[in-house]
């Protein structure tokens, strides 16, 4: 097609983008192993790698994904043009709870539950769903222009990835950092699984604060059986506690006060009588109690509050589980309450307390309630037998990595969230009671016929070869192994049963930067295209770009996992990108209709315009109050680039020019070259500091105002074809990481000697 015909119409992104993306894929240049080595493009010895934060297989592209993908693509495209051996590694996360919920909803339409299918058939259904819908978001990333090496696409349930997860579990267990125990966890009664603190969402709720009198035990109190509870209650012969959940009074095992609270100094060590249950419980002193809350005295319900459980451990208190896994009152709550919902139990408890004159007062009280991040059900903390990873040593490792500067946050202020969590960390509950995910590599004896002595450890050569480890306990006959055991070392008869629980999704995603590159055994990797030298060549990676809300869910865990398992940092820099908000500064929400679909913007304005609009608004590290005007400005700029290129090409014709050292003829020539040199240095500096918005603003101003408005007008008076084509081609190179489609399309029509594709031209 002749230049005049090609550029005679306005720029049409729909005609260009799919064609150009196919051109890139056909070239193979997304694959670092296929990058060209020539006179004009010499690979540096140094590699450059970014692993994409794996989106959930249930997801579709939202504005946060789009912004983050563009940031990574800008860096990858620049480094590729600079001659680095670049790898942008894509993939998806199996998203245990989210994916299981989606498939369960599909089954519900058919009148079925997962239990009707059984575990094996249900997992088959999830895999079918994943194959059909799980890669939608990756295809959308292609529409955005993401230059990932799709031949290396990973999935957190790949066979090789599963091996990495099992290896990490075994490693931590051998160090004594993984243990099974009864501890209070965040329990979702709808999803029927435990959740970590980081998987909760919080809502403000207008509630009540009940002030309840707990009578102090004396010679004449409590009363004899059959007498009213308050008959012998003397004035002020009680301690008043404040609570937002009076129904949990049935599970109390103590009243606690702060040791610095002088009001209760004489009561510590005494006994009070628990209302309704008539159970005698102690008054204990613990520094975890907030003096300012309520009366300064709090009820301790160890089975249904994480902080209360920790206090109970320090004071060796009894534990009463009065709420079951379905959110109903249990047998331990008493026959009058068993089977009631917590809501109905609350009403009944309050009525009983009022009857006995044990409620001192009731106040309105605004507080926050925790909800499941997937189904929005209210969380019911309760004691449960779960698997935990000790965090004390791992937290130290993670803190050191950032304090020493091995890993740097950009902007630096996000380090505070990182350190605050690590300074107050609890052991990580890594088990989940769902079916979709990495099943724990734990195998139980089904007969439990033999007691295993504490001295018995690895009891046979077969076990040693399989790397099996026996739990030293007579009541827990299990082994940890990365291979399914052929024989039971306990009863010598049964076919050992694997643990039902799966690992927290974040346990597996914490291995993402290195498990995707072949750890622990890249030479034997089989999933996708995995070069056995990938881990050696591309690890540690250079940059991680992600959102603030998963700093501790994911970033922290990758840092300590890599440091502990590989002895290396997983990446040098962490970019925390802005959150994209609505125009009036609120969180975007699909359910509220305030979310914006990037695919709609791409369809309407084009991918380049969408990329431009996102980055152009990314200034100063502040959140983006999204305005579609930025995308419209991107479309106008694309037209400006198109029209300016048409003007240049019409001026110089089809003669191929050598533009490596263009000669200036006029003062205008010298000025534009000087401005170009200046803008190149400035953009390099900005991108090196991850100032993407600033870099784009500078390129925009240079191209529109200095090149188009001034120099192109001057060129009409005295044409210098070499300068024209040189400045245009260099401008296209600067713009390419930001607006790759239109720049590649135009570059294909430039009459330049020894020209390559723009994606691999020299930066």
Quickly list its features.
Isoleucyl-tRNA Synthetase, domain 2; 24 helices; Rossmann fold; 4 domains; single chain; four-stranded mixed sheet; alpha/beta
Radius of gyration over all CA atoms, rounded: 32 Å
The CATH superfamily of the largest domain is known as HUPs
CATH architecture field of the largest domain: 3-Layer(aba) Sandwich
Shape, per Cα inertia axes: elongated
Describe the structure.
With 763 residues, the chain is α/β, with parallel strands linked by helices. The protein has four domains: 41-94 and 134-177 and 390-440 and 502-576, Rossmann fold (3-Layer(aba) Sandwich); 198-375, Isoleucyl-tRNA Synthetase, domain 2 (Alpha-Beta Complex); 441-498, no CATH class; 605-760, Isoleucyl-tRNA Synthetase, Domain 1, CATH 1.10.730. Helix content is 37%, strand content 16%. The strands form nine sheets. It has a four-stranded antiparallel sheet. A four-stranded mixed sheet has the order 10-11-9-12, covered by helices on one side. It has a four-stranded antiparallel sheet with strand order 19-20-18-21. A hairpin with a 4-residue loop joins strand 10 (271-274) and strand 11. Helix 11 (392-403) packs antiparallel against helix 12 and helix 11 (392-403) packs across helix 17. The chain is elongated and about 110 Å long. Residues 449-474 and 523-530 have low confidence and may be disordered.
